[in-house]
Design goal:
By secondary structure, this protein is an all-alpha fold. 71% of the residues lie in helices and 0% in strands.
Length: 186
């Protein structure tokens, strides 16, 4: 990747296209988790690609291309959210429940949709984009300890919602009734 970044910094459009293509799925998942719809995610990604192309010469350390691009993407997503709020005059906008066929794990998206925003973004960057806590700390400009706390709380939030479901289905499989008594399957 470092070689592609260096070539892109020298104006090689093909190298830049390869870089963008290698990060496209991660960008989509992160943007979709933040803005919660495909159209705004596509807009954020487009703006990010353009900004990265225009400013790639400003990237000092080529090994941080992915983190740098993710930071730009998050800023573009936040800009879209601010514009959306301005258009709605503070009212919440009802979004249609659109499920993208491109997104491989619909259940994961549903889990993320019900999660608090500050935990959702950290969870996406960690689990979907594969960034470590130090990289997330840099992207979100917060201490790494805060990132670790948000990851832990995000996991707790998921466990609180889905933990009981898993326990109940296990009890049914084992033939255990609500009061701990066993029952026979008919």
């Amino acid at each position: 990747m470092t070689n592609l970044v260096k070539r892109a910094q020298k104006g090689d459009a093909d190298a830049f296209a390869q870089l963008v293509q290698s990060q496209m799925q991660n960008m989509y998942k992160a943007a979709r988790a933040i803005v919660r719809n495909d159209e705004d995610a596509a807009d954020a990604i487009s703006e990010t690609i353009l900004a990265c192309w225009e400013k790639i010469g400003q990237l000092r350390k080529t090994e941080y291309f992915r983190t740098w691009m993710t930071k730009i993407l998050i800023n573009n997503c936040n800009d879209i959210l601010r514009k959306r709020k301005m258009l709605c005059y503070g009212d919440e906008m009802q979004e249609p429940s659109v499920k993208s066929e491109e997104y491989n794990n619909v259940e994961w998206m549903e889990v993320l949709q019900g999660m608090d925003e500050r935990y959702r973004l950290v969870m996406v960057l960690y689990y979907v984009n594969g960034l470590n806590t130090v990289q997330i700390s840099d992207v979100l400009q917060m201490p790494a300890s805060t990132v670790r706390t948000r990851l832990a709380r995000g996991r707790e939030q998921i466990a609180s919602v889905y933990g009981d479901f898993g326990k109940r289905s296990h009890e049914v499989d084992m033939g255990i009734g609500e009061n701990g008594g066993r029952y026979e399957n008919i």
